[in-house]
Amino acid sequence: MLGSSAGIEREQVFLEELANYPYAYSDELVELVEEMQKVECKESRDELKTALNKCVMKIYGLQDNYFVDYALSIQIPMLCGTYHEKKCNVKMMQEYASILSKIWDEHFRQSKVYYAINLYPDIKGKYAALQVKLSFEKSVKGVFVLDNVDENIDLLTEFMIYQLNDCFYQTKNIVEFSENSFVIVKPIESKNWHPAMAIKDSHKVLNAVLLGKEDCR
């Protein structure tokens, strides 16, 4: 690491190697680390840890990177066993829809295909869905939150759990295409509707549309 010598029992780093290694210095970061070392209260340390992560992301221009946020708020806590699951809410799904809409417009703004997005934030207390309805006729573009679930979407949830073997079952996400719409159905947990997943899912849908492949898994 950092150009350490090889073939020895313990890693060795020469000072001249460190001097040439690029890094970003921040007085704010130094102060946060010093303060964190003095604090004994767990809640205060957690707050400082969050502030420290934000400071590092700001230094490297990653403060608005959804994938870094996903790693820090979901992936790492899951690996460490500290993650607490929660359901997605309307606000989270609206942000998901906004990202999908932005990516869609970047590719199809000149296509004269109009669309509206329907959100189903709670299906049976277990699932959530986003439906994009397409039309060649100019219509009102917007994001609409619906409480009453479409029968076809409700039916899709029946196919989300499949058997791996005699003992284990797994829940899979579904992207279903029809003649004038597509729908994304996923478990209601917030990690599935994080903005990073919106970017990932949007490009999966784009690949399916542009390449003519309906299997977006």
Write a compact overview of the structure shown.
This protein has 217 residues and is α+β, with helices and mostly antiparallel strands. The chain is built from seven helices and seven strands, in the order H-H-H-H-H-E-E-E-H-E-E-E-E-H.
Describe the structure.
This protein has 217 residues and is α+β, with helices and mostly antiparallel strands. The protein has helices spanning 15-20, 27-38, 42-59, 66-80, 90-108, 151-156, 195-211; strands at residues 114-123, 127-135, 143-145, 161-163, 169-171, 174-177, 181-187. A hairpin with a 3-residue loop joins strand 6 (174-177) and strand 7 (181-187). The chain starts with 14 loop residues before the first helix and ends in a 6-residue tail after the last helix. Helix 5 (90-108) runs parallel beside helix 7. The relative contact order is 0.12.
Features:
43% helix; 217 residues; alpha+beta; 5-stranded mixed sheet; two-stranded antiparallel ribbon; single chain
Please give the radius of gyration in angstroms: 23 Å
Structural class: alpha+beta
Sketch the topology as an H/E string, one letter per element.
HHHHHEEEHEEEEH
| Number of H- or I-type helical stretches | 7
DSSP helix fraction: 40-55%
